[in-house]
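TICKET: design request
STATUS: open
ATTACHED STRUCTURE:
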């Protein structure tokens, strides 16, 4: 019985450490998820405005900063997040003000690196969490949407490196690069395995990316649900043990 109580005490202490290292006292996963969803909803409407590209870049920069705050609880993680977010945000602004000044593959690459870093931090938080709560659920949803953003940069990179990788009914010309929204639209449709008829992958790298994203989306949901069920079952078992000790 004492071993069980020690195990429960250890879980509580571990939860407190997670709250410090996961950045929850600075900027919660729920707040980041709200910012992410608002950006995704606003982007299709912003591109129709006169200064839509500027507004979209500004909101994306704010989202990158909020991601740093969401995962940068410890000093080491915060420093690493800042070092990764600076080129990611800078690349987007250079694409806005001086397109063509830098190699066209740099901006998607640095964006992928930063999104992958944030994604790993959320996944680590989910895997280390001792119980299911709102922060774990928000982190799980945020990680799923971040997978979409990760493949968005990958599609844009392939589109720029291999001209003609995608046939887009909304664009004129076989070598037209995918735009930000078109790449994100293709990414989410592939992630959810819905299928896309207006944007078609033509090159081998493009088709392999879509295949890999579809497999990742299915596996992620299966693993996330299994993890949440395991955490919930462990929490219920701990509550039963605690009530039995009191009685």
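STATUS: resolved
RESOLUTION: sequence designed for all positions
ATTACHED SEQUENCE:
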């Amino acid at each position: 019985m004492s071993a069980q109580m020690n195990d429960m005490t250890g879980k509580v202490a571990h939860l407190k450490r997670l709250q410090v290292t996961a950045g929850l006292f600075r900027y919660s996963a729920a707040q980041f998820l709200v910012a992410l969803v608002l950006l995704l909803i606003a982007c299709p409407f912003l591109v129709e405005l006169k200064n839509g590209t500027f507004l979209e870049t500004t909101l994306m920069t704010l989202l990158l900063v909020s991601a740093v705050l969401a995962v940068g609880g410890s000093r080491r993680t915060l420093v690493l997040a800042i070092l990764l977010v600076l080129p990611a945000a800078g690349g987007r602004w250079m694409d806005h003000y001086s397109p063509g000044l830098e190699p066209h593959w740099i901006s998607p690459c640095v964006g992928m690196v930063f999104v992958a870093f944030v994604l790993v931090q959320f996944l680590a938080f989910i895997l280390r969490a001792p119980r299911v709560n709102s922060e774990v659920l928000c982190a799980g949803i945020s990680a799923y949407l971040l997978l979409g953003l990760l493949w968005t940069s990958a599609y844009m990179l392939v589109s720029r490196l291999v001209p003609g990788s995608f046939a887009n009914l909304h664009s004129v010309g076989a070598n037209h690069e995918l735009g930000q929204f078109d790449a994100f639209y293709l990414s989410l449709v592939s992630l959810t395995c819905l299928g896309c008829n207006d944007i078609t992958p033509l090159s081998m790298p493009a088709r392999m990316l879509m295949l890999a994203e579809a497999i990742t989306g299915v596996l992620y949901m299966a693993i996330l649900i299994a993890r949440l069920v395991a955490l919930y079952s462990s929490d219920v078992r701990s509550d039963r043990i605690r009530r039995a000790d009191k009685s």
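CLOSING REMARK: The first strand starts at residue 166 and ends at 168. Residues 204-246 form the longest helix (43 residues).
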